[in-house]
Queue: 4 jobs
Job 1
Amino acid sequence: MNAAYHRLKARFARITLLGEAQAMLHWDAAAVMPPGGAEARGEQLAALSGLSHELLTAPQVAEDLAEAQAEGEWDSANLDLMRQTHRRATALPTALVEATTRANAACEARWRHARAQSDFALVAPALKEVVRLQRETAAALAEATRLSPYDALMEGYQRGIGASDVEPIFAAYEQFLREALPQAEALQAEALQASRPTPRPLAGPFPVPQQQALCRAMAERVGLDFDHARLDESTHPFCGGTPADVRITTRYSADSVAQALFGVLHETGHALYERGLPAAFARQPVGEAAGMAAHESQSLIIEMQACRSDAFLRFIGPQLQASFGGAAEAYDPANLAALWRRVERGFIRVDADELTYPAHVILRFRLERALIGGELEVEGIPAAWNEGFARLLGLTPPDDARGCLQDIHWYDGAFGYFPSYTLGAMAAAQLMRAAREAEPGLDAALAQGDFTPLRDWLRQAVHGQGSRLGFQDLLRAATGKPLDPSDFTNHLRGRYLNA
Amino acid sequence: MNAAYHRLKARFARITLLGEAQAMLHWDAAAVMPPGGAEARGEQLAALSGLSHELLTAPQVAEDLAEAQAEGEWDSANLDLMRQTHRRATALPTALVEATTRANAACEARWRHARAQSDFALVAPALKEVVRLQRETAAALAEATRLSPYDALMEGYQRGIGASDVEPIFAAYEQFLREALPQAEALQAEALQASRPTPRPLAGPFPVPQQQALCRAMAERVGLDFDHARLDESTHPFCGGTPADVRITTRYSADSVAQALFGVLHETGHALYERGLPAAFARQPVGEAAGMAAHESQSLIIEMQACRSDAFLRFIGPQLQASFGGAAEAYDPANLAALWRRVERGFIRVDADELTYPAHVILRFRLERALIGGELEVEGIPAAWNEGFARLLGLTPPDDARGCLQDIHWYDGAFGYFPSYTLGAMAAAQLMRAAREAEPGLDAALAQGDFTPLRDWLRQAVHGQGSRLGFQDLLRAATGKPLDPSDFTNHLRGRYLNA
């Protein structure tokens, strides 16, 4: 370790501190800011990211990177990540970055309007400009990183996995779904007819203060330490803040407890990842989470794998009854499973069950890859969307609001992000299988509301690894193999296809 | 206006944006941060202030200041303030700034312990180091500003007024108090004996949700727009945030409504000042508030001048009754006056009434001036405090916790700040008198809970002036004369010495 490397560490720590300030200001904007603060907040965030960019691209950084030497696995990985970060930051001309920021903001505003009107034509010109700039960005990053243009965008969200990894996995899933979905639907219909069980809705009411108390208690059970965390409300639930002070949000509806509860469990999974990052490399690239797919694996292993398991449903039923009263039958694990593990084809990604969710992602992955590659133009999106959706899920969206206008991502300039959702779901199943093998008492513990075995295993296998490894190597170290979607399809078979 | 001036404006805007981020992080730390976030927050704030300092002291700034030309009153004042800010920032060697930060933090931590034990000896060594560094700082600033050392420190809190202005004003007040205080006490005792009125305590209970609703409604009446503001809770009430998004806090006790209500009214006065700053010079030195004494004049004109006036007490009584119920007699304006305008000698500054409050400040001003001047050493503080307190208020503190250990200021390195409290109280009386002359319907409006005449006058005379004028010139423009303490003593005579 030489002086140049130490200078770089100090500089990256400073950049991360600016990032922490930005994270707090983002949380504030979503959770507590009065509406009149929005314009000033935008300027504060722009000033901070401008300064970060200057710190990252200053001439001294290139000089230090040329000289720097690091020893040991962690510091070597850290230095590699510094180089990658610097390469991406310097690959893009300032004029392109600024044009992108402006175009994204303009398009996002148009999109809100277009979605409300369900009129794609209203946003098409703005999206054309966004796509044009994304193509330019992808080309510049591709040149700097020697990846393909679309892979260079993907790398910005999840290092270590590209379209050629994803493509066959998604094709196989499409194949699997073609048989599994009708089968799951038939089993559900059969069970309904046989009344075993007829899903009995939870009666409610679900007063918000009791929901808040329950959500907080469950987040604590999963392992969130409220000395270093907050739980608040926002329109779109998210996990923000910093590793030392993680902020999760949810939204409450007095008609339903599932929305808030599973929202909190999902964000708690993200939060535990941040809390468990390696403290010895805090504020260094190698001390950060390994990427968006890795992050999603941690929210989904809590929400989907653990908290919708038979074991946990046995635990949560009595908790719900204690909070909201009502007849015990509704809280029976089999009834909760019928309510909360229901398969249903629908148009909206964020409402989808875990079996059909990947279909939503596969469609978006194919379209955005074609958009960046130039095989698809913006005008062709609605038709391509509807055609692809019909092929994947057998339904045709009745309008663009329930089709290609539903998600913010593209309209805000995020291309290459969507695959992370399904890569995360698959990784969650693979990690859960490995955790169960390593910790034979895991399910018995979950049935007692005890997350210790799962959490301890995740801390060691995932959280504590930071960004030392790319996505595939992280899975390899934790589970003995790179991403293997059969753990996910086996999980789905066990949960949805066992009559 | 030349290019150098425009570059400076852009740079100061950027520095102010960093300051806005810091303000939000400070608010967050006081109002909502989980305790485990404190250490990281300290590092985030240190990184932001380090970057601000670098932006302010970069060689380019000196070059631009040498070349810059500005025309018109506002831009000329702005350029002057840039020069002053730069002069102060470059006057101090980095090593001194860093040593000061460390010594202040260490001393503040010791002080919490010493105050809890009421043992000055525990903090004396740490305070000696703080004072040593403050003397060094004052000397360096004095050389750069050509002010006396203590005045150079005062300038950091309130530009445009020095110890030689304050000294005779405080001496005269001491003289006034010597007669006024026993007289006010005698009148109070007489009234009590004559039962006109016997102060009837408000019965309560005062449930916190109703207090919150009332406080918010009153802040809105005074003129705070909650599209650009929040009201929260914190241990020490304060006004923070930014002009576009101002954050006030208070604390609630179920036993008393006065504490929270007057706390909110006080902070609302500060908040209105921030909200009313000149938008055309937002994020420029001339667009900021004129200093701490000016700021305190705005909180006190709302809390003390307006909201403890006979007129407003007529309005607030029925509001309180509507919120908390109970017998109407307790809400009678004369009873509220007897409760909330009570004169009482006490040891604690923050609990003091407006007549005795200046005595607390005068004592601190004299001691801190002597400390910076070298006529007093740290070891001599407790004796000098007790002797001075006895001379001013006729009481001897029973221990140092109720004496020289009560305030955080010195132990955190703040010397030259204390006079602002009393300068603000005096300015508030002077401004109120001018406002009443300019707006003859002001009190009739207050009796209806209508702050429009007062607020409109303050916006024009104070808030909208930003930092264009120093403290004395601001008062001269608003009231036709520099600080004239007789408006304050006349106000006190009218309120406390009219049998």
Job 2
Amino acid sequence: MKVTVKIMLKNGVLDPQGKAIEHALGGLGFEGVGEVRQGKVITLEMEDGMDKEEVHAQVVRMCESLLANPVIEDYDIEII
Amino acid sequence: MKVTVKIMLKNGVLDPQGKAIEHALGGLGFEGVGEVRQGKVITLEMEDGMDKEEVHAQVVRMCESLLANPVIEDYDIEII
């Protein structure tokens, strides 16, 4: 079972990496680009045969304790 | 128009960040976790009214020239 976790800074939290990309794209001549934000994506290979809801609950615990900083980041879990 | 670009190291390219997360999850007592890989996700706000195919071609150029390292990274573009 494959789990994808997308972690982005919350709206309103300053994202210097995104801003740097935004400026670099402008400098390279790309037009029509508005706000750019950068986050991280983590893919986990989980043991097959586990209950999907159980896996979801486990990945939420992983996010809260290690993968994300819940104070400033939002996470989105997708299980395939 | 919102564009999401997911950038991951190609299969076979060593991913030390992913390995570090894998070990940390094991150390925290999470079981049944196989391979972990970490990548980045970039969201771009593009001007509305642009042609979708044109936007896609433009984002491919952004990936090749700035966002990704096409030698070791794969990218996946999603336009909403």
Job 3
Amino acid sequence: MARLVMKFGGTSVADLDRIRNVAAHVKREVDAGHQVAVVVSAMAGKTNELVALCRGASALHDAREYDAVVASGEQVTSGLLAITLQAMGIDARSWQGWQLPIVTDGAHGAARIQSIDGSRVIEQMEAGRVAVIAGFQGIGPDGRVSTLGRGGSDTSAVAVAAAVKADRCDIYTDVDGVYTTDPRVVPKARRLDKVSFEEMLEMASLGSKVLQVRSVELAMVHKVRTFVRSSFEDPNNPKTMPNGDPFGTLICDEDEIVEQEVVTGIAYSKDEAQISIRRVPDQPGVAAAVFGPLAEANVNVDMIVQNISADGAETDITFTLPATDYERATAVLNDKKVEIGYKTFEGTTGMCKVSVIGVGMRSHAGVAAQAFKALSDKGINIRAITTSEIKISVLIDEAYTELAVRTLHSAYGLDKA
Amino acid sequence: MARLVMKFGGTSVADLDRIRNVAAHVKREVDAGHQVAVVVSAMAGKTNELVALCRGASALHDAREYDAVVASGEQVTSGLLAITLQAMGIDARSWQGWQLPIVTDGAHGAARIQSIDGSRVIEQMEAGRVAVIAGFQGIGPDGRVSTLGRGGSDTSAVAVAAAVKADRCDIYTDVDGVYTTDPRVVPKARRLDKVSFEEMLEMASLGSKVLQVRSVELAMVHKVRTFVRSSFEDPNNPKTMPNGDPFGTLICDEDEIVEQEVVTGIAYSKDEAQISIRRVPDQPGVAAAVFGPLAEANVNVDMIVQNISADGAETDITFTLPATDYERATAVLNDKKVEIGYKTFEGTTGMCKVSVIGVGMRSHAGVAAQAFKALSDKGINIRAITTSEIKISVLIDEAYTELAVRTLHSAYGLDKA
């Protein structure tokens, strides 16, 4: 007997047939004797429809009202799934965020979960009843409905799993696991049996869309074993691993992964932009003078490269940002030219960031050099580089994205046999 | 300065344009210096869509889950209207049933309001803020969302008006008031300036669709002056009465109506059925033996006629019921034949109940006789009669409905000049 949290996204609950399919997945686990809580998203398309209504009502809308409107999508799905489970003879009830409660901070529209009272869900589970919880939502300190921002249902599921001390949090989605890279770009991409929290966090941050970044952070902090699997399997006879385990990818503590590869995956994110500020005074406080105003303007600066200056007087600063923030960033720089004291700046959109990720890098030298050589062999120019303990990111022209990803995937031996 | 509750139904909030129109109505009252709370229904069609989803999930669904799903419609409208009002520069916020709270009993799907804490709405109103309240919903003793049954938003509005001691509850709808009868049947039907609570209650019970019966009951008990008016008027320049009052029908205490007519209106309801039970023992307890089992089977018995028997041994009982309950009723009667001890029964659907309503009947003799004569003159056969202090109802063949309504409308001098 295990305690499971099962999460189903929008495409998995898109209509009543899909909801019945979800209920069959839940029934399988209940019949196997597990204690089960379920977290659901809104039916596919519903959230977009509700967001469009809010925008239509006013471009600048009160985030608290937006939350009240948009949270209704998950409310509907949780009720419908509870009804469907009951019709299959499974004791179930729905819970909205405010009922549990899932307490968030007051940042309506992008709230963060502060606490979940797991006692009622545990009580329900122990009584053999399935708790069907509306994802993506909670209640703020003002007593009003809050939402966690897009993709927040993953975060709800992991938070619930932490609160009820679940043995595993199963994220059912439209793919059957986490891959070494995007299989649409590299057909030879391999599904990973296991991936560490740290690696998954980098992958999610760096472009993998399988899980929301915050849900991985939360899973890492609370050590919630999170399992990515497909909701499109036959619920009554899902594919299994050779050893009988469910088929998918387990995101878990590094210690649980016996044979750790040096590199686990290649991630990429397009629509990046790059700005270089030329001949900035090379003195303390200049970085703050540049990035303070950008932060205030909500420009999401990512990679920052500053070289030691040749003459000790002036230097260049290069940074990357999402292409959507580019116009705003250049406006800020023009505005602050005197304060910052730079001579010129230049920039461009149409960039891509490609990242090589693996906890094995910590103990292996030469991993970065291998990437640089592989890209150079294909004539791909590297515009900027950043590294962390477990990843190397390079900025390249967007046109080379697929070539670079395929090249690195092969270079690190990730291709499927 | 007055304190107003404004209620808008589904067709009045059918899309964003209609919601903007509603907001303009609200703005007009706020600009006139009134304190305003608004009660809204779900966007037209939305409740049906949600009900269909619940039914699709399971024909027999948990009423508590049904409520969680269906109540989301009003939640969306209240948020959207708050956003729209804010965009017009009007301070507003939405309230869901559980937030206020609107406390109901536990009869999920058809709950009754038990209490409303008006203090928060009054606080908001006095601070110049419009409270936009989701109609049709509340919170049950189990801490779960409850709904009041179809048309419940009228009831929500009147209950809120009672709780905040509003000067008037304006029900905005797709007609411009209460008419002496259905204008589709009698083009000469007249709009009433005022109608008493008692008369409106009979009209609503007897087929007028303008207001939900329970909302009128509640208005009568709490003496909430309720005003039926059109949401399709130009919000910035609505039609007024010659004396400058708003255009519509005021439902109020009898004392407020100076010139009371003898008959105020003619109501009708089609799809009635009639059942006659022949040769029942004429002894105490026989009515209970008949109507007890029917009540248990949720058969909604309306008119009951039992004559004094000629021989003192056996009698006949005739009653009417909605045609939709007919099959169920005959099944019960067949089942209980021995217990009731009747010889035969016969019944028919395709009946119509036509009612003449007016508080003036109390002090005027011969009102019923006038109806019987008028119908007889047209050759319309009366199958059953019931009367109360302020109404006469006759059961006739459905085919004669329009003729009977027109005939009675003229007979009591209700035709428009």
Job 4
Amino acid sequence: MSQTIDRTSKVPAAQQEKPVVDVAALGERLMGRWAAERRASRELAATPAMQRIPGQTMAEHRERVLEQLKILVEHKSVHKAFPKSVGGLEDAGGNIAQFEELLLADPSLQIKSGVQWGLFGAAVMHLGTEKHHTKWLPGIMSLEIPGAFAMTETGHGSDVSAVGTTATYDESTQEFVIHTPFRAAWKDYLGNAALHGEAAVVFAQLITKGVNHGVHAFYVDIRDKDKNFLPGIGGEDDGLKGGLNGIDNGRLHFTNVRIPRENLLNRYGDVAEDGTYSSPIASPGRRFFTMLGTLVQGRVSLDGASVVASKLALTIALSYGSQRRQFTAASDTEEEVILDYQRHQRRLLPRLAETYAMSFAHDVFLEKFDAVFTGRADTDEDRQDLETLAAALKPLSTWAALDILQEAREACGGNGFLAENRLTLLRADMDIYATFEGDNNVLLQLVAKRLLTDYSKKFAGADAGALAQYVAGQVGDATLNRTGLRKLAQSIVDFGSTARSVGYVRDADAQRQLLTDRVQSMIAEIAGRLRDAGKLPKMEAAQLFNSNQNALIEAARAHGELLQWEAFTEAVEGIEDAGTRQVLTWLRDLFGLGLIEKHAAWYLIHGRISAQRAQAITSYIDDRLLPRLREYALPLVAAFELSPELIGAPIALGAEKERQDEAMLYYREQRESGTAPIAEKAPAKPVRA
Amino acid sequence: MSQTIDRTSKVPAAQQEKPVVDVAALGERLMGRWAAERRASRELAATPAMQRIPGQTMAEHRERVLEQLKILVEHKSVHKAFPKSVGGLEDAGGNIAQFEELLLADPSLQIKSGVQWGLFGAAVMHLGTEKHHTKWLPGIMSLEIPGAFAMTETGHGSDVSAVGTTATYDESTQEFVIHTPFRAAWKDYLGNAALHGEAAVVFAQLITKGVNHGVHAFYVDIRDKDKNFLPGIGGEDDGLKGGLNGIDNGRLHFTNVRIPRENLLNRYGDVAEDGTYSSPIASPGRRFFTMLGTLVQGRVSLDGASVVASKLALTIALSYGSQRRQFTAASDTEEEVILDYQRHQRRLLPRLAETYAMSFAHDVFLEKFDAVFTGRADTDEDRQDLETLAAALKPLSTWAALDILQEAREACGGNGFLAENRLTLLRADMDIYATFEGDNNVLLQLVAKRLLTDYSKKFAGADAGALAQYVAGQVGDATLNRTGLRKLAQSIVDFGSTARSVGYVRDADAQRQLLTDRVQSMIAEIAGRLRDAGKLPKMEAAQLFNSNQNALIEAARAHGELLQWEAFTEAVEGIEDAGTRQVLTWLRDLFGLGLIEKHAAWYLIHGRISAQRAQAITSYIDDRLLPRLREYALPLVAAFELSPELIGAPIALGAEKERQDEAMLYYREQRESGTAPIAEKAPAKPVRA
């Protein structure tokens, strides 16, 4: 099977006036700061032992993934994030980068690793203190202690502060009593809980001296070495799921299980022998969010894994689309390559642009994460920014990955449905990425609240008039921009030539202005509607807020899109090779103009673009950007640097081309030898039967 | 487990001024003309023997579905469509209706039945003649002859006219020689081909006397009773797929396989002993499309099955959404039911409206199908209308089902991901519905071509000026409407009150006008751009057409949406009960206004609605329609009449409510008994740690 993506591919010499993409340099840029970690992880992911075997039963798949975790340990792939005191490297960013790439082998492997080291291990690390690290981290790192992260309950996923499990301190024995008071408080959907877990970090309401101090984390042994539940502990297997069946998700419940006082992971809250509670963070609310904030790495790695999956999906679909032929629209003998059809370009190329945007945005995100968790930039504000970034990007990228996998599947037709071509199984696995580590819709509300808070800080005490003025005047506001921008006023009535209409929005500053303006205006409008919420009774305030919930989520999404666009633009500006920069500028334009086209109704309603300009944007995408970028589809996916072993899908590795070539040769030989049957002549005049 | 949907549910007495839905009558209306067939099929689908067992291996699942086909035979569920001459009932509509409902048990069962009786059997029936019926249909009906429908090849799916398989007539032996000339011409993705099929209807280029008469169908035995391939025939198993793994899809190839001349299914084309070809249809193109047209029932049943799946998905998600609670926004003690959140309503209620529209549109479609295939209304034009209906509705409903299943999955959170709650497995199975029986994007192009043809017939010989005038004047055109309508002119500048803005579009005639106008204008615009295509060389014409491909597909989609809206409106007008009619009118408005909102950019660009009106539509949906319809969510899904056995998903059958009630009782008792721990007091003044 021949490899169809040429790493050194350049546009043919005959077209040398056209820009040329430096695939190798672009590939390096896409790999980003942790290129070495990513490449090492891909090398491992390319080995058969780490890859999924489609069609395994759930039981077989679970055992296989457990064995793969042991291989990761042997390869010393799991120590990076942990403290140097226990043999780790304290390399937060490199650790995440390498785990993201494991998705290429099998998402179950990525997620089960994430459960063991990114959730269970990270909770001990971030919520525990030195004594906990010394005691448990070595066993966690070596997989001697497989563990579960017991936060979510059947009854509470999004609202973790309301979990039902209690941890009540008993002064007389200096123990916590972990207890599940009702069925909805069973811990649920926990990886490692159904079979392999021997311990768990259990999140429970900490109660001492009759006071509930809110949710804290406790280290609890749950099974003995023979995998039998310890006394007081029970559980169930979650059974078959829509995907990720290499992970043994399950439920746990606790009946007055006693654990030593020291098993409270006490970095942010402790209980003295006499039951006195203390915390370095006075506000219970802030304490809770600080604890949860240490676990943001799950969101980082889902965002990164979604980027990886999107790259793989588009590598498959664009490779196939460049070889598959169907219908003879333009020739009597040779069929069209399907990527030459406009619709096919419309389906895949904007998604390629989105993938680039997601990839560059993820770099910014991972960089921020690394800065916070290595302590380079770790103020309260840094942490809040990181959380907002996580809450904005993870929903967009996880949804995008599902959309891209689906479109890629459909673009590969029946071939796309075969398990061997990977798209369907990957999509099934990644479905739940939209829900875990924070439901996407809930996360976007967190973003919106942050945007509203920032907005109201800026306008503290402002009356309705000032707000209205802000809304009216913000066309010229550029607080989110790094450069001064000309006003958009003329756009409202620009009935000039189409070329002029397009010329304007092709400009990066204009795209930035339009995207920024939309976020600001949406938030300002909502803030205006919510301005009296504070004065209302709780129920009415809730109703008012609820009647703006959909608009809030849309504003948060617009904010995330702007972040992606900014990251893409910054990356393009940093590229030195002129040809590559030109092609990526087109791709960035496709992303930016695609967003403006998608939200054209908003821009038209708010007078930000004219009807003529809105139409010009669509024409520019269809008639210019798509045909131009179609020529670079293969170099642009080649820069993803996915080896044949990582791509896996036969249809992306030459099988289709081989078949097409053979068929074309057959017909050509028939024509040339004169052995082709002649076509039945149509009757001179169509006769109706 | 309690049943959560009350078949007799009415809105509580306290709210009697509000309209009441007559659930039973609405259910009867939704069941439609073939209610008896649907109910009988559902009864069978509700039995454990017919239902899918999640987690079975591919091999187990395939065997199980084969056994289920035998149960269908025993229940005399497969004879309906076949000729009376062989013991059938010639009940085309009733037959399809019953097969659609089998999806509730397992989509693999629906599709494998469809392969055996709807494709393989139907090809013998529609493309063969009396002698073929007598010889093979009894064995096909009894499953004595399991068979494959060998049309698609690895290299040709959408463009069936270009399949590579040949059937060359040999006068000397009076046989056809079936041959596969290259790998791309292997028959592929065929149900029954990997294991069970003993015969196949093979589509091949009919060549006699050196002339290729185009694709015809041939009956070919492929395996003996021990399931060994006959000489000259080989194949492969397609292996694991993204879904539908209860079907043994596979590949077949033929090496000079000789079959008797009589095995040509000769209704539309025959070869005499001496090799002379004859056909009742002189034009090879029309002949081909007539043959394919007889096989439209696949599209009908995928459309219907998508409606059934959407009903099931929304029954599950809306039942769960009415019981699941999360966050205490409006109360200090009781959490909110998640369907009370605006976003949750936005996610599910427009999809409920869409499902109603799809359901009523499917009734129209099935009625038309029945009229054509029972001969009640079977002119050329009827058949063309049926095919256009099929090509417009099947893409919309199969895509909608995937979208609805996914949104329902996400709306059920982690619970939605468990296989037992069905949404993920159903979605995985139905993924390929977007591709088979005609790729959705290809089908929509057929619709667009029909719309263009109709348009150009109307304007045959018209010059560019006449076309332009049409575009300008069509605001008042009502050719697609059944009623005269007032002009929309005032809408362009209606800066009146919001109430007036909304009042106008709430009107059914205005919705019809806006939706109709959009289809007509889009087609007129494209026709204008394509008007010189006929004069261009083939390649340039193809390029011109290609540069309008995306717009064509969007126009076709708009046409399909209009058909759905018309069907919904007609159904609402036929409902006698005032309360039901009122609620369904709101639901229809949500569908219609939702379409206008979705396409608001087009309406704004083309001056059909003002900015103010566009905003008023969104406000009307958010502030009026969603809160109103939220109260009727359960009666509206109750009218789908899905029994607990058919719903299957535990979260939709009371498990969630039971858990929520238990938890609420626990906390209430704690509060009342004074044993609840008190919450930690927040510090008087927030202190930053």
